[in-house]
Each structure stands twice: as C-alpha cells, then as structure tokens.
Amino acid sequence: MKKMKYMSVVWGLVVVGIFVLLTFFGFLYKNKTKDYKLLEEKLVEAEKKYADQKFLYPNEGEIIKTSLKELQEAGLIEEFNVLDVACDGYVVLSHQGLVYDYKGYVHCGNYKTKGYED
Q1: Which of 31, 39, 54, 94 is 20 to 30 A removed from 45 (C-alpha atoms)?
Q2: pTM, rounded to two decimals
Q3: Can you state the percent helix, strand and coil of the chain, rounding each to 5?
Q4: Helix, strand or coil, per DSSP, at residue 94
Q5: Nearest to 79 by CA among 31, 114, 111, 35
Q6: Nearest Cα residue to 39 out of 108, 110, 117
Q7: CB proximity list for 95: less than 8 A, separation 6 or greater
Q8: Residues 1, 71: Cα–Cα separation, whole Å
Q9: pLDDT along the chain (118 residues), means of 10
C-alpha cells in the first residue's frame, strides 16, 4: 500500500513537471512570434482600408490577394520589418457566406506564416 502511494506521488510530480515544461515552452514560442503576429495584423488592417478605397470585395467563394508592395504604393504601410530584417507579405481576402475573411501572411528571414506561398 505504501509503495502504491509513493508511485502515485511520483507520477503526479511527473505530470505536473511535464505541464510546467510545456507551458514554459509555449510562452517562449508566443513571445518569439509576437512581432511577426503584429506584422500580420498590420497587413490585415491596411488591407481593410485598401479594400474600402478600391471597392475590392470578392464574390462568394472568390479570393483577392493583395501584396505588400500594393499596400505600400497606396501609402497604407511604410516600414515592414522585424529587428531590422526586411519582411515581405501579402493578404488574402475571401468571402464565405456573410463574412469577409482577411488573412495576413508574412515572410521575414527564417519566419514564415503557416501557409505562406512564395
């Protein structure tokens, strides 16, 4: 009985240790990618203004892809870098049902948004 109690405590500590370790690495990853996520949001906000200016709204099931260069030429984005590394990107605007969906994609050095197409 004593041995079983000891094993329960050991396994409990192992589970807690794994949880703490995974949480720690999750926070490290989130902190590391924070600047890139801000760039993605910056792209989306610029695209919303650009779409309103140009009346660019896709029909149901269509997509519109707007490059960073187009947004810069429209004067909606100036600097687009992280830690002095120049970045590239684009926004995909799609229409599904009653909702317009904006998704920003960024490529900076070693970082690429999941689904980024060259």
Answers
A1: 31
A2: 0.77
A3: 50, 25, 25
A4: strand
A5: 35
A6: 108
A7: 57, 58, 59, 60, 61, 62, 101
A8: 69
A9: 83 91 82 87 94 87 92 91 89 90 93 90
